[in-house]
Structure formats: structure tokens, C-alpha cells
Design brief:
Elements: H1 7-19, H2 22-25, E1 27-38, E2 44-49, E3 54-59, H3 61-64, E4 76-86, E5 91-101, H4 105-120, E6 138-143, H5 148-160, E7 165-170, H6 178-190, E8 196-201, H7 215-223, E9 228-232, H8 240-244, E10 247-248, H9 252-259, H10 263-302, H11 304-369, H12 371-376, E11 381-384, E12 401-406, E13 409-414
Parallel strand pairs: 3-5, 6-7, 6-8, 8-9, 9-10
Antiparallel strand pairs: 1-2, 1-4, 2-3, 4-5, 11-12, 12-13
Amino acid sequence: MADFYTVSQINHYIGNLFARDFVLNRITDRGEVSNCKYHSSGHVYFTLKDAGGAISCVLFARERQELNFRLQDGQQVDASGQISVYEKSGSYQLYVRRCTPAGSGQLYERFLQLRKDLEEMGMFDSIYKKPVPPYCQKIGIVTALTGAAIRDMINVSKRRNPYVELVLCPAKVQGEGAAESIVQGIRRLDKMGLDVLIVGRGGGSIEDLWAFNEEIVAKAIFEAETPIISAVGHETDFTIADFVADLRAPTPSAAAELANFEYEVFAEELDSLKNSLRRTAEHKLMLARARLNAGQERLKRLSPESVLEHRKQILKEGLLRMQHALQVKSERADARNKTYRDRLSGAMKEKQIRTTKHLELLAARLDERSPLKKISGGYGYIEDAGGRAVLSAGSVSKGSRIRVYVRDGRIDGTVTSSEKMNYEQK
């Protein structure tokens, strides 16, 4: 059975042949761009063709960052890179690492080297960027006297702000002596005390725009005291002037948009600020009047007459409160005294009743025990000569003087005889 190879093996083998070929790994192809497509991934796919053939090309997003113009159908370009096989389809294509307009390779190399040198010098650093004033009234323009660029900038400026003052310094922007003419215009306008300068021109090839890639132009922009907006070519065109300028505009028209404030919007904002200021002033005036009235009232309250009257009123109110308090205390004392008198009177009556009852009881008891009562029943009370009660027959003797008390008087006598008798035993 004959040996065979798979399609993948064949494509892989051919790919290795391309990879080992020195010429195919470092090749520059010149041709006309066709079927150019910018993919959403950032890659650019196109075809290079001439009268005899065509080759597919791809420029990956990372290499596209070095591209300083926009690829378009019909352009003549020099594409440098590596030709390799795309094994999935078995086709070969040019993987582009660098792309320049045809015949401009040396200029592009100079552009890259100057950009690197100036960047290392710090001329692109943001700390040197001067802010563009938000309300520019005087705008200087360095560009060609004729052409679409100056017409577009004038039209945009007058549309946005009809009162803006434009100062044009005509300059040569292409060919021999263009860089020196641009530098002269920048320095002349920089001495006029303008608000901002616009330096630029319309689009073109790298050769047409080269004056803005000269080092003397970059230094003039960097050294200017006035903020500078660069407006060179189209949105995809980048020059050294764009990196040094304080602000880059994608087109001259966009530069005029950035430099000019919109007068109608400004007027509306100004009216709004006026209204806000008026409301603020009215509010502050109202507060000031309120503070003034409060101060006058306070001054009135603190005047000697007001203070004296206030103190008189305080004394009067204090006196009334004192009189009222005394009256309340007197009424409360009278009420308490009445309560105490009522209580004392009741207690005394009760005490009197109890005492009377007790006296009556004692009187009854005393009456029961009274000698007079006994005497009135035929009994008598006997005393000896010394006034002592004779309680026993043995306490007197014959011849002793005695006094006998009876119900209606007394009887004095002498004991003729005495005899003790024991009545309890009988």
C-alpha cells in the first residue's frame, strides 16, 4: 500500500519551508492596496496587487499602533514583514510589521527616530502642557493663506463665536522653507498676547506634512508661552507637532471647535449665572435685613430705658408673685390653724367628756367611800387630841380626849373606858 500524507501534514511542512527561508522572513512588498477592511478586533486585512498579481496581507493590532496614516484602497504602500502559510486554509499571506506610503520609508524612519529623541528629552511630557483657556477672545492661526483649512477654521469660529478676533499669520506649510516659515509665524504670534494659537494645515501624504515633523517646529511649539493647538491633516495623520503641542485636534475644523467657545451657550450660561447671582444677592440682602431688624430689636431691648422698664416689670412681677405666695401661705396657714383648732377643740371636748365621765366615776366611787355618807347613816368619825384617826379601841385609854364627827357636827368628849372586841370571830 502506497504511503500518503494528511492535508495538515502537508500544510505544516510547507509552513516550515517558508519559516526557514531568509528572504520570506524579511521582505518588503510594494503594491496597490485593495479590499482594505478594519476589523473590530483592531486588525487590518487588505490585498497588495500590481499588474501581474496579488497577495493577501494582515496588519495585527499591535503593529497597527505604529501606523501614522489610514490605509485606503488605491494607495501605493511599502509593506514589510514575513510571508508565512496559514495552515488551516493552506494559503500564504504577508504578515505586515510595518507599512508606509510608497517611497516614504526613509522619511518614516526619520519620523520614528525624531519622535524617540524628543520623547527622551521630555518634550512630550504632560507636565509641560499648558491648558487652553475656556473663553478665548483672540486666536492666532499659523497656516497657509489659501486653502480649505483656513476657510474651515474661519467658518467654524464665526459660527461658534461671531465676536472672536482671529489673527492670521500666513505661513508656507509644504516644501522647501516651510518649517522655517511655520517657526516664524509661531514666534511672531506668541509675542502678541493672544489666548491660543492654532498651527496646522489640511491633509496630505507624509511628504506633504513633513514640515510639521521638523525638529525646529517642535522646539518652537515647546518654547512658546501661548498654548498651542496642533491641527495637521486628517484624524489618522500624526506628526511630531501633535505630540509636542499642548492639545491635538484631529482636523483644522476640530481645532477651531476646541479654541472657540459657543457664544450662544455662553450667553445662556451667563444669563443663568446672572439670575443665580441676583437670587443669591436678594437672599443675602433679605438675611442682612433680618439681621439688621434683629439687631435693632436687640439694641432697643438693651437701651437703658428698656432695661430699666424690663427690671421694673421683673420687680413688679416678683412682688406680685411674692404677694400671691404670701397670700397662699397665709391661706394655707389659716386652713392649717383652723384644722388644728378644730382638731384641738374636738380633742378638748373629747377630753372633757372623758374627764367628766372619769370624774363622775371617781365621784361615785368617792361618794360610796365618803365618811360623811357613812356618818349620815348613824356612823361617826373619831379623832384623838392630836387629830389622828382613832381606828382601834387600843389606841386610846381612859381619860383620853377625843372628838367625834357626826353627820351634822362634832362631839368632844373624854374616854371613860375602852375595850377591844374581835367582831370577826363572832
